[in-house]
Amino acid sequence: MTVSTDQHKEGKRDVTFRVFRFNPQVDSKSYFDDYTIPVERGITVLRALNYIKEHVDASVSFRAFCQAGICGSCGMRVNGISMLACTTQVWDMLAKSKEEGVIKVEPLRNLPLIKDLIVDMDPLVDKMKHYSNWVDSTMPESEMGKKEFLVSEEEFLKYDKATDCILCASCVSECSILRANKEYVSPAVLLKSYRMNVDTRDSMHDLRLAELVKDHGVWDCTHCYRCQESCVKSIPIMDAIHGIREDALESRGMKDTSGAKHAEAFMSDIEKKGKLVEATLPFRTNGVLWTMQNLLPMAVKMILKRRTPPPPPMVKPSKGIKAFRSEFREMSEHVKQDHKSHKK
Amino acid sequence: MKRYAYYLSCINESMTKEVDRSIDLWQKDLGIELVKLHESTCCGGSNLDYVSPKHFALVNARNIAYAEKMGLDLVVSCNTCLMTIRTAKKKLDESPELKQEVNELLKKEGLEYHGTSEVRHLLWVLIDDVGLETIRQKVKVPLKDYRIAPFYGCHILRPSSVLGKDNPLDPSSLDLLIEALGGETIPYEHKNRCCGFHTLLVAEQESLNVAGEALEEALRLKADFIVTPCPLCHTVLDGYQAKALKQAGIKSSIPVFHLSEMVGLALGYNAKQLGIKRHIVS
Amino acid sequence: MKPFDIVIVGGGGAGLYAAMEAMKTNPALNIAVLSKVYPNRSHTSAAQGGANAALANKAKDDTVEMHIFDTIKGSDYLADQDAVEVLCSEAPKIIRELENIGTPWSRLDDNTIAQRPFGGAGRPRCCYCADKTGHTILQTLYEQCLKKGVIFFNEYFALNLSVNGSRSKGLIAMNMKTGAVEAFPARTVIFATGGYAKMYWNRSSNAAGNTGDGQAIAYRAGIPLKDMEFVQFHPTGLRKSGLLVTEGARGEGGYLLNKDGERFMSRYAPEKMELGPRDLVSRSLETEILQGRGFDSPAGKYIHLDLTHLGADLIKSRLPQIREMAMNFEGVDPILEPIPVRPTAHYSMGGIDTDNYGRTVMEGVYAAGESACVSVHGANRLGGNSLLDILVFGRIAGHTAALEARKFEPAAISEDEVKDQLAELRSSMQPSGHYERYGELREELGQTMAANVGIYRESSLLKKGIAEVAELKERFKKVRVSDSSDVFNTNLLQVLELKNMLDLAETVAAGAFAREESRGSHTRTDFPTRDDEKWHKHTMATLIDGHVKLGEKPVTMGRYELQERTY
C-alpha cells in the first residue's frame, strides 16, 4: 500500500457507501442503501460504517469486534472483494471504485445470509468438525502437562504460516468451487487440515486424510488461486492444498481416487512422451464407463470438428525425448533416495 | 524483427491447434518471430508440482534452458503453462541447491539452467514489446461492431506473486488490446474469474457451474463474443458450453475466441484461415 | 439439552480452558459455552507477547519462586500471595499441556518451547509463538473444545443471572440471531467475559466488546467486584482507535515528540528516555498533553511517535507490523511522517471477587480470567501474566465447577422471569418523547473516564467523574434503540453493552476516589505515595439499593514483606 502525495493534500471528502441491505423479517429481497458521509483521510471502512450506524442509520448491521485485524469478525466485500473492513482504508478503496466517490459494501459470499452484512459462520465450523481440524494428541490425557514434545524449527515452519489464519472467511467467500457447490470442504478448512496433518504431535493423520480425499474434498480444488490472493494474512493457501495432495499421493498411492489418477497421468505421460496424452486422460481418471456416459455425446461433435486429441500412438514425443527420459528417470532415483533419508 | 522462443503447449498441439495456426499467420505482421521449441515438454499442468516437486523443477528448468540456449525469452500462449513454468522458475531462482541438482541432470543434454530468460505470455509481449500504438496502426479490419467480453482466466493473474503483470482484482491488459484492435470491451465481472477447467474430470458438475456463470453473464450483457488468452479456458467455455448452459437452464450460445484469433481477425485474416471453424460453438 | 450442569459465559481463553477442563474432569456433565462472538473471535487473540512460566528452558536457573516474587513486586504488593503462588506454580504445567494438545509455540535450538525476556521479569520466562501467542492459544483451545464436543451457543448475549436468595439458578440470555430471550437453567455458571477497559472507548486498546458484561451481571446480582480502580494504561495507543503500537517502535529508536518538536522524555527519564518503564512513559505523555504541549485534532490531543529518522529500510525490515498498523488505522506511513499516539487503557486488574478456586460469594457462580480478580495482578499486571492468568484460573474454575456442580439441585427458571426480561428489553427500545442517543452517551462516558478517572487522578476530578457517570446513567434511561428488528439487532447489543459499562464505570470511579494513595496503575496527584498503613487492602464494590457501596478485604500476605517497588 502506498500513500500518494495527493492523498496527503486532500484531507476530507464526501464518500457514498452503497450498503447491501436485507432483513429477513421484513424484506422479500435484498437492496442497496446509499449513505453519503464526510470522511477524512486515514479512516477505515469499518470506522465509516460505525459512523453511519451511529449518526445516520442505526439499523445497518454488521459484525465488528477487535477492530484491529486480528479477530476476523468484519469480513465483508468492499467493491466486490472480500476483505476485513477494519484494515481497509476508505481512501485506498476510492481509488478502485467503479463509480467515482462510491464504495460498495456487501456481505461475504458462499455462506448463508443472516442480515445486511452478516453471514452465518456455522457451516464453516461444521466443516472444521467434519475434517477433525484439531490435534488429536499422541500423548494420553493422563500424561499431559508433565513434559514437552520436542519440535524442530523445520517442523514448526511447516505450519507456522497456516496458524496465522483468523477464520475471517475471505477465502471462503472468494472460492470458485464453493460457489458451485456449498458442500465443498473450503480453502480455510483445507488449510487447517494441512496444518494438523503435518504436526507430528497429532495421531489422526490417516483418518483425516481419508476424509479429505473423498468427494467434496481436496481433489475438487480447481487451482484458481482466488483464496490465496484474497487471504488477509497473506497465507499461501494453495501450498497447503497442494501439500495435502502430495501427501495423499504418497500415503495412499497413485490409484486412490480419480483426482490421484488424474495427477498421476501427468507424471507417466511426461516420462513416456514429454507430452500429455489428452485422449486417454478421461479414461485414466474416471474409467471407461464414466467417459462413455459423460464425454461420448461431446466426442461426436468434436470428431466432426476435428477437435479430438490424437490417440496415444499419434502423440509425437518431444524432440530429444531420449535424453529427457533418462534425466527424468534419474530424478526419480533422487526422489527415492530423498524418501529413504526422510523416513530415517 | 524481435525473436522469441515459443513454448509448445500440449493442448495447442492437440485439441486447440487453431491457436498456433493463427499465430503463425500474423506474427510477422507485428514484427515478431516466435521460434518453436520442439524440445518443449509438458509443464506439468499445475499438477506435477505436487505429484513430484523435483521432477516439476527438472522439466521446466529444461524448457527454459532451451530458450536460454538461444538467448531468447520464452513465450507461452496458455495461462496454466505460463503460471506453471514461472512458478518453477521462481523456485529454481530461490534455491541454489535445487538449481544445482537439476543442472547436474541437464548436463546430459548439454544444457544448463541459468535463470536468464524471462517467461512471458503472448499477451504481455503484444502489449509491452509490440506496443498498442503499433498494433493500432496494423489493424486492417477494426473490430468496431463487436462488444467483447474479456475472459482473462486465472493463471495469467494469480498467484500475483508469480505473475504480477496485471492487477488480479482489476486486470486491464486484454481490455487494452481489444480497444487497440478497435473493439468495445464490456464491463465483465467474470473477467478475472475461473473457468473450472482443472476439475473438469474430477468434479465436472462444479466445473460446469463455474463455467455456466461466466457464460451467463456474457450472454446477459449481450456480448458478441468472449475472448480468452488461454486455450484451457477456451476448451471449457467453447467445448463444454452446451453442457454448462444446459445445466444452468439457458437456451442460447455465444462464440468464444482465442486471443490469437481475435488478433488475426483484426489483421485481416478470415475465420477459415484462423481455424475458427474448428470451434464447437460457431 | 437444558438444564445444564455448567454454563460458561465467554469463549475466550479462560472460558474455553474451563470448558475443556470440565469435560475432562467429568465427561458425563452437560456443559455449554455461551459467547456473544464466535469463540475464535475473542479478545484473547489480541495478546501478542506471550505467557510466563518458569520452564527454565531459556534461563536454566529460573524458578517458580522467582516468578512468584516478580509478580508480587510488580503488583505493588496488592496481589494475594497465595493466589500468586497458585498462578506461578501451575504455569509450567499449563504451558506444557497446551503444547501437548497442539499450540504452535516457537522453539529454542534444543527444540524446547522458546522463552524471551519481558518487562519486570528477572529471567526470560515468557513463552511465545512469534507475535501471535494469544491467537494460537485461542485457536488451540477452540479446536480442542470442538474435538471434545463442547456445546456452543455462539452469538448469545448474556443478560442476567437468575437468582434465588444466595443461590444462582442459571442465566438468561438473548439469541442474537433471532432476538429471542432464552433461559439457561444451570447448576453452575462460570463468568469468563474478559475485561472492562473499553469503557474508556477510543482511549482503549480493547475490542469493542470488552464491556465487562460478566462483571456487570455479577454486580447486579449482588456479587462484589474487587479493586476496580486499577486500570493499566499503555503509553502509545493510536490517536483514532486507541490500538497499541508495541514497545518495539521505541526499542528500535523511535522518538516521542511534543508539538514543539522536543524529545520531552529528557525531562522525565533523562537516562532511559523513551525506554523508561511503561507507567512512567504513560504519565509523561499525559503530562505533555495536559500542559498544552500536545497536538490538536478532531479526534483529540496527541503526541508524535517519530520513526522517520530510522529510514525506510529499517522500518520495513524491523517494524513492518507497526508500519502496517499506522497505515491501516491512521492512514499514516511512518516512513514519511510521525505516528499520532496517546496513552490507551488496555487492561483491567479488577473484576469479580473470587477465591483461589474461582468461587464467588454466590453459590454456584464462578469467575475466571480478566473478568475475575483473584487477585494475582494487584495494582499492576506484569507483561506475560495476563494470558497465564486466564489459562490457569480458567482451568481451575472449570475443574472446581465440574466437581461441585452435582452438589447443587438442578434449577428451573420460570417462564415469567424470561418474559419479564423480554418486556424490559422491549420497553427500553422505544422511549416516548425526548430520547438520548447511544453514540453520544458512549462517547461522553469514554471522555469523562479518560479525563477524570484516567492516568492522573485527583479528588476534584474524580468527584466530577463520579457526577458525570451518575448523570449519564440517568440519561441512559431515555436511550433509544433505533433498530426495531429482532434479527441480529447490533444496535440493541450496543445499548446493552453501554448499560454494563455505565454500571462498572461507577465502581471504577468510586474505588479511585476512595483510594487515597498512589499504587501501581492508580496515580493520585493529591496522594502521590503508597500508603500501606491505610490502603494495603482490596476495595470491594457491591451494589446495594441501586448504588455502589465500597467495602474492603485484607490482602493475603505470605513470604514476601512489603517493600518499595523500584526497578
TrEMBL record, chain A:
Protein family: Belongs to the succinate dehydrogenase/fumarate reductase iron-sulfur protein family.
Alphabetical list of CDD domains matching this protein: fer2
EC number: 1.3.5.1
GO terms assigned for molecular function: 2 iron, 2 sulfur cluster binding; 4 iron, 4 sulfur cluster binding; electron transfer activity; metal ion binding; succinate dehydrogenase (quinone) activity
UniProt cross-references to PROSITE patterns, sorted A to Z: 2FE2S_FER_1, 2FE2S_FER_2
Any single GO BP term: tricarboxylic acid cycle
Name of the protein this chain belongs to: Succinate dehydrogenase and fumarate reductase iron-sulfur protein
Domain called 2Fe-2S ferredoxin-type: residue spans: 13-109
UniProt cofactor(s): [2Fe-2S] cluster; [4Fe-4S] cluster; [3Fe-4S] cluster
Keywords, comma-separated and alphabetical: 2Fe-2S, 4Fe-4S, Iron, Iron-sulfur, Metal-binding, Oxidoreductase
SUPFAM superfamilies named among the record's database cross-references: 2Fe-2S ferredoxin-like, alpha-helical ferredoxin
Pathway: Carbohydrate metabolism; tricarboxylic acid cycle; fumarate from succinate (bacterial route): step 1/1
Cross-referenced Pfam families: Fer2_3, Fer4_8
From TrEMBL, chain B:
Cysteine-rich domain boundaries: 4-86, 149-238
Record keywords, A-Z: Oxidoreductase
Molecular function terms from GO: oxidoreductase activity
Coiled coil regions, renumbered to chain: none
Entries under Pfam families matching the protein: CCG
Organism (species): Chlorobium ferrooxidans DSM 13031
InterPro entries, alphabetized: Cys_rich_dom (IPR004017), HdrB/HdrD_reductase (IPR051278)
This protein's record includes keyword Coiled coil: no
UniProt protein name: Cysteine-rich domain-containing protein
TrEMBL record, chain C:
Name the record gives this protein: succinate dehydrogenase
Protein family: Belongs to the FAD-dependent oxidoreductase 2 family. FRD/SDH subfamily.
Amino-acid positions noted as binding substrate in the UniProt annotation, renumbered to this chain: H234, T246, H346, R381
Claim: Flavoprotein is one of the keywords in the record: yes
Residue ranges of domain Fumarate reductase/succinate dehydrogenase flavoprotein-like C-terminal in the record: 442-567
Cofactor: FAD
Stretches assigned to the FAD-dependent oxidoreductase 2 FAD-binding domain: 5-387
Positions that bind FAD: 10-15, 35-50, 213, 370, 386-387
Active site: R278 (proton acceptor)
NCBIfam families linked: sdhA_frdA_Gneg
One annotated Gene Ontology cellular component of this protein: plasma membrane
EC number(s) stated in the UniProt entry for this protein: 1.3.5.1
Gene Ontology MF term list: electron transfer activity; flavin adenine dinucleotide binding; succinate dehydrogenase (quinone) activity
Reactions catalysed according to its record: a quinone + succinate = fumarate + a quinol
